[in-house]
């Protein structure tokens, strides 16, 4: 029968156990992942099973990396994400978090756009490091993404997006993610995308200031438009932006991108 | 009767998107409006008719991100 061992198809006898394969192929393996979930007791393999064997602490080759990094993915997901191109408008609190989440799951390509540089007050919510202060955000983020998942193609544009350049920048993408800070910029983006690409999915983040209030954060979809956030908590005087709540909305947006690319998860 | 974000609003002949926005007194000035799934550009709010029985979705745009 056919199984997949570290993504490589392998013909084995029926009733073969995991322990037998470990013994034959990687006796030093101490992390065993079957169909996306760790196993710590032996069991008999079935037709189509996907087994990944990892030795903790061992540094894989670039070729092995892709397989090992996606061992915990729901089977079948990675292949679909590898062909996707996602545009992210803004690399601040939302954009940097979204880019990292999507890089970790291995989307094929990210087009990241921001004119700004990293400064210290960004660091309470944005995915940059102190040694990156002063760098262009798109450059710093590209470096960070490469350290996380070198298989993701990252295209950068250090520009201010407006109605005249959005078409060229985002035309090749499958989904556009809105990750701006200012409401007027969010308006400009939605107006432009709905006019130029009314069928292209657009995922926005609206309303995430403050702390707590987890149950107020939600997701709403109207046709191609998806909005994550509480839709009312506007950043302003005495109402700041901080990593936890901004991060929740950013990951809701990234999660929405996955649902757009993969359809609903049949497990839910 | 039409629906605005799922809640009923009495229809008046010739009602426009601007009329709906005024009637519902939305908190924030910048909005996203879709009438029966079709996006309405903000410069067209006062000239776009909202039919009776339509489904209107209005989403605030607020700063922060």
Structure description:
The complex is a heterodimer of chains A (268) and B (65). A seven-stranded mixed β-sheet of chain A has the order 8-7-6-9-10-12-11, sandwiched between helices. In chain A, strands 2-1-5-3-4 form a five-stranded mixed β-sheet, with no helix packed on it. With 268 residues, chain A is an alpha/beta fold. Chain A is built from eight helices and twelve strands. Chain B has one helix and five strands; from the N terminus they run ββαβββ. Chain B starts with a strand and ends in a 5-residue tail after the last strand. The model of chain B has no long low-confidence stretch (mean pLDDT 96). Chain B has a single domain, classed as Beta-grasp domain (Ubiquitin-like (UB roll), Roll), CATH 3.10.20.30. By secondary structure, chain B is an alpha+beta fold. At the A-B interface, helix 4 and helix 7 of A face strand 5 of B.
């Amino acid at each position: 029968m056919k199984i997949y061992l570290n993504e490589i198809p392998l013909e084995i006898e029926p009733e073969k156990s995991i322990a037998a394969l470990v013994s034959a192929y990687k006796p030093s393996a101490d992390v065993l992942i079957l169909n996306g979930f760790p196993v710590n007791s032996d069991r008999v393999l079935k037709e189509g099973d996907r087994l990944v064997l990892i030795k903790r602490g061992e540094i894989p080759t670039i070729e092995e990396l892709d397989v090992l990094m996606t061992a915990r993915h729901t089977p079948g997901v990675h292949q679909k994400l590898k062909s996707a191109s996602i545009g992210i408008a803004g690399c601040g609190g939302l954009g940097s978090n979204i880019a990292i989440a999507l890089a970790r799951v291995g989307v094929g390509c990210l087009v990241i756009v921001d004119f700004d540089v990293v400064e210290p007050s960004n660091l309470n919510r944005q995915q940059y490091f102190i040694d990156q202060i002063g760098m262009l955000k798109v450059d710093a983020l590209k470096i960070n993404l490469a350290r996380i998942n070198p298989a993701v193609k990252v295209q950068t544009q250090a520009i201010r997006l407006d109605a005249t350049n959005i078409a060229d920048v985002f035309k090749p993408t499958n989904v556009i993610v809105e990750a701006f800070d200012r409401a007027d910029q969010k308006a400009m983006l939605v107006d432009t995308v709905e006019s130029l690409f009314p069928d292209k999915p657009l995922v926005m983040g609206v309303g995430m200031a403050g702390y707590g209030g987890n149950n107020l954060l939600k997701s709403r979809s109207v046709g191609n438009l998806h909005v994550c956030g509480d839709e009312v908590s506007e950043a302003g005087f005495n109402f700041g932006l901080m990593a936890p709540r901004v991060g929740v909305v950013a990951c809701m947006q990234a999660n929405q991108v996955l649902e757009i690319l993969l359809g609903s998860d049949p497990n839910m | 009767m039409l629906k605005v974000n799922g809640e009923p609003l009495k229809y008046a002949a010739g009602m426009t998107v601007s009329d709906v926005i005024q009637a519902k007194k939305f908190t924030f000035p910048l909005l996203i409006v879709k009438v029966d799934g079709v996006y309405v550009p903000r410069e067209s709010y006062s000239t776009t008719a909202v039919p009776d029985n339509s489904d209107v979705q209005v989403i605030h745009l607020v700063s922060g991100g």
